Amino acid sequence: MATNRTFTMIKPDAVANGHIGAILNDIIASGFRIVAMKYTKLSPEKAGEFYAVHKERGFYGDLVSFMSSGPIVAAILEKTNAVEDFRALIGATNPADAAEGTIRQKYAKSIDANAVHGSDSDENAEIEGNFYFTAFDKF
Ligand code: ATP
Ligand code: MG
Fold this sequence. Notes:
Nucleoside_diP_kinase; transferase; four-stranded antiparallel beta sheet; nucleoside diphosphate kinase activity; NDK-like_dom_sf
């Protein structure tokens, strides 16, 4: 398995509920190395652009307004098998279905406010990381 990268956001609900530290701790304890990290806030336009892949879905408007409702933490993470292992660490999209011990099971309350984002492929991890960070931000 190659060392590769994924991209995550700690979403506005988890930031507002005081879970930044606990979530970063879980991520680091699971063997991910932080390559880049930023505390920032998405405008509705930027959130719409980030989630453009979902624009035909019924929840798109709610997703965009939620993701621009407060600050987030964006980060690029590195590990062997990063994309798949990070999806396992965060758990199912709906926290009600997320396995015991996963980040969404521990820190999320609903499918729309589900604490964290994780890239779904190496290709999207690259695109999403480059949405926030330039080569000079990656270490
Ligand atoms: P993410 O991309 O945020 O890591 P995911 O890959 O598990 O989540 P996606 O299918 O990509 O899930 O959906 C993106 C986000 O849209 C979800 O994290 C969730 O917040 C929201 N979402 C997905 N499905 C629904 C739904 N049925 N109702 C409301 N919100 C939804
Ligand atoms: Mg997704």
